[in-house]
TrEMBL record:
GO molecular function: alkylated DNA binding; DNA-3-methyladenine glycosylase activity; DNA-7-methylguanine glycosylase activity
Sorted UniProt keywords: DNA damage, DNA repair
Protein name per the record: 3-methyladenine DNA glycosylase/8-oxoguanine DNA glycosylase
Domain of life of the organism encoding this protein: Bacteria
Any Gene Ontology CC annotation: cytoplasm
Biological processes, Gene Ontology terms: base-excision repair, AP site formation; DNA alkylation repair
PANTHER family according to UniProt: DNA GLYCOSYLASE (PTHR43003:SF6), DNA-3-METHYLADENINE GLYCOSYLASE (PTHR43003)
Segments forming a coiled coil: none
Species: Saccharothrix espanaensis (strain ATCC 51144 / DSM 44229 / JCM 9112 / NBRC 15066 / NRRL 15764)
């Protein structure tokens, strides 16, 4: 049965769920008559379909359908509190005015956001999205219910542990990232506790896995529990974008940390406003060409 929920705040549905999308070819996320998501829940695989009029209407299919529906408000930012957020830069204030429906949603699940986050370590997004898509197609399962054609549920930790060296190679995943994913898959049930711990304690639990550092932990925290202060330090582009948007000049991570200090403990929220502002940093050279590990 469909469930409805009336958010007690302005809600930008695509803006809230957009960070879960891993490129235009993401087979676990689609925009087609609403938004479609797949997930590996504690109860099993599931598909969620969400539409918005005055109310939010959601349907779900699969063994994990009820699990997803029960957590719909949290997924759409109901647990997010931005009441204490203060704008210290005109661009952030203007973006906040234009995007009043921005919330930080929480999937409540670590594994489904950890898998693509590890794949995005130290490679271009094109490479990472290609690898994620290929792993979903090969080791995920078909999306339950009437999902758009080709949608898949991401691979479970058990499925990842069954990937052979050759199959990692075919998916374009180098040795360092595959070792990190295998180590995470081996303790995936313990890592789910990070979503309950939240904050720095949750991020610290994730960093206990070899190969998961501050950047990856922040990327997971932003999505799994809507962490408002988890900044992706170490990102190749982020400090430059924030610097150009707010100061008109490039910054490194240390400079970005200093610039964002007044926004603590909601520094990630400030970064989201920068990302959604439309600001772009100048391009001074050629882009990096994606590497194809399958040809090595």
């Amino acid at each position: 049965m469909p469930r409805t929920w009336r958010p007690p705040f302005p809600l930008d549905l695509a803006g809230v769920l957009g960070p879960l999308r891993r490129g235009p070819g993401d087979v676990a996320y689609r925009e087609s008559g609403g938004l479609w998501l797949t997930a590996t829940t504690p109860d099993g695989p599931a598909t969620l379909h969400v539409t918005r009029a005055d109310d939010v209407t959601a349907e779900a299919w699969g063994d994990g359908a009820d699990w997803l529906l029960d957590r719909l408000p949290a997924l759409l930012g109901a647990d997010d509190d931005d009441s204490a957020f203060e704008c210290h830069h005109p661009l952030i204030a203007e973006t906040r005015r234009r995007r009043p429906g921005l919330r930080l949603g929480a999937t409540g699940r670590v594994w489904d956001v950890l898998l693509p986050a590890v794949l995005e370590q130290k490679v271009t997004v094109v490479e990472a999205h290609r690898s994620y898509r290929e792993l979903c197609l090969k080791f995920g399962t078909p999306a339950p219910g009437p999902a758009p054609a080709g949608m898949r549920v991401p691979p479970t930790p058990r499925a990842i542990l069954g990937v052979t060296d050759w199959e990692w190679h075919r998916a374009g995943v180098d040795g360092a990232r595959r070792r990190t994913l295998v180590a995470a898959a081996q303790v995936a049930h313990r890592l789910e506790a990070a979503a309950d711990l939240r904050g720095e304690e949750g991020r610290a639990l994730l960093r206990k896995v070899p190969g998961i550092g501050g950047w990856t932990a922040a990327e997971v925290a932003q999505r799994a529990w809507g962490d408002p202060d988890a900044v992706s330090f170490g990102d190749f582009h982020l400090a430059g974008l924030v610097g150009w948007a707010l100061l008109g000049r490039p910054l490194d991570d240390d400079g970005m940390a200093e610039l964002l200090t007044p926004y603590a403990p909601q520094r990630h929220r400030a970064v989201r406003y920068v990302e959604l502002s439309g600001a772009r940093k100048p391009r001074f050279g050629p882009r990096f060409s994606p590497r194809d590990y399958r040809a090595m």
